[in-house]
Design goal:
This protein is mainly beta. Helix content is 5%, strand content 55%. The chain is globular, with a radius of gyration of 25 Å.
Length: 731
């Protein structure tokens, strides 16, 4: 579904270009669970002769908004950039372009990619946590803060929007940043599209799309199948995706949007991590225990959503979003047999059946205060997750890697209820103020159904709540220069996965964990400092109290505790411009210093009944590079339909654990891509090729943070290639 922003006319003087105020967008984008659509600050300026003047996009009812005027760091990746970045399978293909964001392809489809925003989310060992994820306005994050992006359909996306910094906190729990994907609307023409991609390591993807308009309905339907043998041994994967969007216009005032998507990933192999010695000896190997227990994961998800938009007149409107989904996961782990034998141990097979649903209702009022435009948004949202968690031994007798005896049976629930209000006021011709307040309550409950002699009832519950404010100010120095400052306070509950195991070895949830709280602020500049050249830069800082950190990690089980303070501060910048004659440049750079602000104790070796190893204040938070850069030099010759680019990516050293005992070395990579498009009557045909890691560097593409057996490293491919062919027919 398409988020529909409704703003007021700012009433600017005739001598100044008309500009929708920053906070109008920000107030509503945060309320609506979406980041604003704008190409003003862009991570995706393609080659060619496009103007870099503040670009606006038209949303419903002809209202325009630019990221140039927002008191926040917002980037948009457009459809052409998504298409050029790779096989349109992993979000990491395009997020490398966004400053402040680190997205690592783990080469392991059993664990999803790693994403962090300004250091938030870096400790996740699988999936995405600490960030809010949305696909067409539907949350891809559960209310506990754990999310995944396997259902993101890149092939049918019109754009991906990334919000960072203090205003992210107004999304509620675990909103260290926000990533939203939007499916393109159908029409006005009917277009059928088929594409195929193949490449190194048995990569193959075939996709079909159909989009168009039929009367008052716009539709966009996409389906794809992806498969790979994997760069590493025992890492083969298959993923099937379907995504459908139908937008129905009843009248100029009334709109319905329906979204349905599905993802199926059967028996995806998990090669596990390697030690440094194993990686140096043979980076393509899998851990021996991956074969012993045939480690693998199967996922199936189906979800649907409805958005109803109604304009009431007199400057008022409301929007209601509702969704429902199911997700099942079965994962075979490499837990040693001896570790699983006690009745208090949950086994080596995890079987999760999740049902989730939610509703968000918001009201928007456009008026004036002291003669200046004022927009107020107020609403409520509720999200529920019901997760049946089963645990089985991963052996039967002497046969390993098969489902054995039951060792865990519980029903876990998470309920979130939020209330929010945001506003923006155009205080003066060159000043605007945005503010918001959100109250969140997140409740966890567990009903234990596995009660036997030696394993008692571990049922229980815990609740967390917080009020998260944000404030931002923009000073429009000139029409080509904006200065802004913003601040906010956020919170982050533990996820069900972090609550799943107790330090005493029991199978119940760890109800001793507290939520973490953060205080963030940033100052920034957005400027078009010369014709067709734009620079956006920001300095940011975030201090977090009660950070959730690892307490122990043995036998494949991680338990967690709350530490003291952590500190994240840094600088990010994006520069884009045109040289003329088809040449263009894009550069994104981030420097991030993320450290523990206070010492704490942890366990690093079994047995360990009391934490006994000091993690010193000043240690770097693992999983976060200090420096990351992306650069692109592109050339386009429109007469030939040719586009080519040389990409450069640098990722700094990444520590693997809280002790900073080892690290993945820094690496610089060079990629080359080219595409050719021909238009033949009703047909448009496109061929493309790209070569990644052109210089054939050996490196670890990601790390498994705090892995208990020192198998921290997940090697990335050397030189690899990708080629594709697509054909679209316009009826």
């Amino acid at each position: 579904m398409k988020c529909q922003f409704i703003f007021v006319d700012c009433g600017l003087p005739a001598g100044r270009p008309r500009r929708i105020a920053a906070g109008h967008a920000l107030a509503f984008l945060i309320a609506s669970g979406c980041t604003l659509q704008a190409l003003g600050q862009t991570a995706s300026e393609p080659a060619g002769e496009r103007s870099l003047s503040p670009v606006v996009v038209t949303v419903t009812h002809g209202v325009e908004q630019s990221a140039f005027d927002a008191p926040a760091s917002v980037d948009v990746i457009d459809a052409s950039t998504i298409q050029n970045a790779g096989p349109e399978v992993n979000l990491s293909e395009v997020l490398v372009r966004v400053p402040g964001v680190v997205a690592q392809n783990r080469q392991n489809y059993a664990q999803d990619i790693q994403i962090s925003s300004r250091g938030f989310g870096a400790r996740s060992t699988f999936g995405v946590r600490g960030l809010r994820l949305y696909a067409d306005g539907i949350p891809a994050s559960f209310p506990d803060g754990q999310g995944q992006v396997s259902n993101f359909d890149l092939a049918s996306a019109s754009r991906i929007e990334v919000l960072r910094g203090p205003f992210s906190v107004l999304y509620g729990n675990s909103s260290g940043g926000v990533i939203s994907l939007f499916t393109a609307d159908g029409g006005p023409q009917t277009i059928a599209d088929i594409s195929t991609t193949w490449g190194s390591n048995g990569v193959q993807r075939t996709g079909v799309k159909l989009s168009g308009t039929e009367g008052a309905a716009q539709y966009n339907i996409s389906a794809a199948k992806f498969s790979t043998d994997g760069y590493r041994e025992h890492s083969a994967a298959t993923r099937e995706n379907f995504n459908g969007k139908l937008k129905y216009t009843v009248s100029d005032d009334t709109h319905w949007t329906f979204v349905l998507n599905n993802v199926n990933m059967p028996g995806v192999q998990d090669p596990l991590g390697l030690t440094r010695a194993e990686m140096l000896a043979n980076p393509r190997q899998a851990t021996p225990s991956a074969y012993t227990f045939n480690t693998r994961k199967s996922v199936s998800q189906l979800q649907g959503g409805i958005v109803f938009d109604q304009r009431l007149g007199a400057g008022q409107s409301f929007q209601i979003t509702t969704y429902y989904g199911t997700r099942s996961t079965e994962q075979f782990q490499s837990i040693p047999v001896a570790t699983q034998r006690p009745l208090t141990q949950p086994g080596g097979v995890i079987d999760l059946s999740s049902r989730y649903r939610g509703l968000d209702a918001r009201w928007i009022d456009k008026s004036r205060l002291l003669g200046k435009p004022l927009t107020l948004t107020a609403g409520v949202s509720t999200d529920q997750l019901s997760q049946a968690r089963l645990g089985f031994q991963n052996f039967v007798g002497t046969t390993l890697g098969v489902q054995g005896a039951l060792r865990r049976d519980e029903l876990d629930t998470v309920n979130a209820f939020d209330q929010y209000v945001q506003g923006q006021w155009e205080v003066a011709e060159r000043w605007s103020v945005s503010a918001g307040l959100r109250h969140s309550r997140v409740s966890f409950g567990s009903q234990d159904h596995y009660i036997v002699a030696g394993n008692g009832d571990d049922s229980g519950s815990v609740s967390y709540q917080a009020t998260t404010p944000a404030l931002g100010v923009v000073f429009h120095v000139t029409d080509a220069l904006n200065l802004y400052a913003s601040a906010g306070r956020g919170f982050e509950t533990p996820t069900l996965n972090e609550l799943a195991y107790r330090a005493d070895g029991g199978t119940g949830l760890n109800f001793d964990l507290h939520s973490a709280t953060s205080r963030q602020w940033e100052v920034g500049m957005k400027t078009e400092f010369m014709s067709n050249w734009r620079l956006n830069a920001a300095y940011f800082r975030a201090n977090t109290a009660n950070e959730t950190v690892v307490l122990s990690n043995f036998g494949g089980r991680s338990t967690y505790q709350n530490a003291g303070m952590t500190q994240r501060d840094g600088v990010e910048a994006a520069l884009s411009g045109h040289w003329g004659k088809g040449w263009s440049t894009y550069l994104a750079a981030t420097y991030l210093n993320a450290t523990y602000g206070s010492s704490f104790l942890t366990c690093v070796a079994a047995p360990c009944t009391t934490p006994n190893t000091l993690i010193a204040a000043g240690n770097r938070i693992p999983g976060i590079p200090r420096a990351s850069l992306f650069g692109e030099l592109a050339w386009q010759h429109q007469a030939w339909g040719l586009e080519t680019a040389l990409e450069w990516r640098h990722v700094g050293k990444i520590y693997v654990d809280d002790r900073n005992s080892d690290a993945a070395s820094q690496v610089s990579l060079i990629n080359l891509r080219a595409s050719l498009t021909q238009k033949l009557g009703h047909w448009a045909v496109r061929e493309f090729v790209r070569v990644d890691n052109l210089t054939n560097r050996n490196y670890s593409g990601s790390v498994i943070v705090n892995e208990s057996t020192s198998r921290f490293f997940e090697p990335a491919p050397g030189r690899n290639w990708l080629a594709g062919l697509g054909a679209a027919y316009t009826f």
